[in-house]
Amino acid sequence: MTLKNFKRLLFIAITSLPIIACSQTQSGSSSSSDALAYLKGGEGEWVLKIDDMTVNQTNFNKDLKASLISQGATEEQMALYLNNDQFKQYYSEMIIRDALLLKKAEEEKFFDSDEAKSVIDVAVRNMKAQYYLQKLMTDAAKTIPEPTAEQAQAFFEQAKPQIAQMYGITEYNTETAPTISQLYKNAYAQQLVERDITDLKDKAVIERNTAVLGEANILPPQVGDPNATNNAMMPQSNNLLPRTNN
Description:
With 246 residues, this protein is mostly helical.
């Protein structure tokens, strides 16, 4: 993955961090400063000073690593970006931006409204679920055997438009083969986890009030960017992996 593409993915995560981090206090109100408290101090040399807040090396590196993990970075990618000066400078600018925005929001009591609290609740719920889902997929991908060259190339040809759009890979060769093999494993892992989620739904007691929800449609309406999902990366067979029984 190129630095340009990873910056784009990281920007999406960073722009959502202020909402996710602004949790409600015990008194029921939310404080923007709560979203920054964990950054203050730390050990090592100072990295950033923003008004009265100082961020030292350990906290900066911990925060940067967490952001990389939230984007599904591999160990190799994290090692690359954690030691990339240009990337660290870019990330520091995002922290500065967020800190100043949150300070201004706190002055305006922006997050005290019921609407803001509801948005934060939704963001926290989604972030927790997505983080756990990502961990399940990462663990599942480790159980998928390495594809043969023929399997990886067939997968690439099937998902070529999506791979080209998301990763800039336009052909299968010795240079791109490792990335395509990992995408192959990720796709199968996604299918495995989705089937486990289906199992959870089958075992749960779920009722839907169609008088309120309406009758189910085959496809949900598109909300936001229709290209934001990577479902198109999935192989088109529905019987690639067996359903779990536990």
